[in-house]
Specification:
148 residues, alpha+beta, Aminopeptidase
C-alpha cells in the first residue's frame, strides 16, 4: 500500500468522494443534501490517499478551520479495504504533518449514527464537543475535537 499527499483537485480523491457521497445518500436519503454546500471544495484541502497497485482505495483530508485549527473531512475507505486500520493510519499521517505547522486543534463532524467513525475518532483521542457553526442546532451530527 502506497501513501500519497495531494489536494482537493486530484481526480482519484474526487472519485472516492463520489463513492462516499453515494453511500451516504443510500443510507440517509435526500435529507443529506442540507450538507452539500458544507462539503464543497471551495477552500484548499490537504489530501492523503492510500493506493493499492496504483488504485486509490482510501482517502482523508483537512482544511484550515481557523488560525489554530483544521477540520478533517472526507475520510473514506472502500468496503473491501476496511478493518485494516487504513483510515486510522491516514489520519495519523495527516496529524503528523499538522504538528510541523503548529496547529493546536483538529475538528471532525460526523453523523450521530456513524458509530464506526465515532469509534475511530475516539481511538484517535478525539472528544465530543459542543456543536459549532451551521451544526449548532443539528441533532443529526456529532462534533469532535482533538488537542495536539
Amino acid at each position: 500500500m502506497d501513501i500519497v499527499f495531494t489536494d482537493e483537485k486530484d481526480e482519484r480523491f474526487l472519485k472516492l468522494v463520489d463513492e462516499l457521497d453515494k453511500l451516504y445518500y443510500e443510507r440517509i436519503g435526500d435529507e443529506l443534501s442540507k450538507y452539500d454546500s458544507y462539503n464543497e471544495f471551495d477552500t484548499p484541502h490537504v489530501v492523503i490517499l492510500a493506493l493499492d497497485n496504483g488504485i486509490a482505495v482510501a482517502c482523508a483530508s483537512y482544511r484550515v478551520f481557523d488560525s489554530d485549527s483544521v477540520e478533517f473531512k472526507r475520510v473514506y475507505v472502500k468496503k473491501e479495504y476496511r478493518k485494516k486500520a487504513i483510515a486510522y493510519n491516514l489520519i495519523c499521517q495527516l496529524e503528523s504533518s499538522l504538528l510541523k505547522e503548529n496547529f493546536k486543534y483538529s475538528y471532525i463532524v460526523t453523523g450521530k449514527n456513524n458509530h464506526a467513525a465515532i469509534g475511530l475518532y475516539k481511538k484517535l483521542n478525539y472528544i465530543v464537543v459542543e456543536k459549532f457553526g451551521q451544526f449548532k442546532n443539528d441533532d443529526d451530527v456529532v462534533c469532535m475535537r482533538k488537542e495536539f
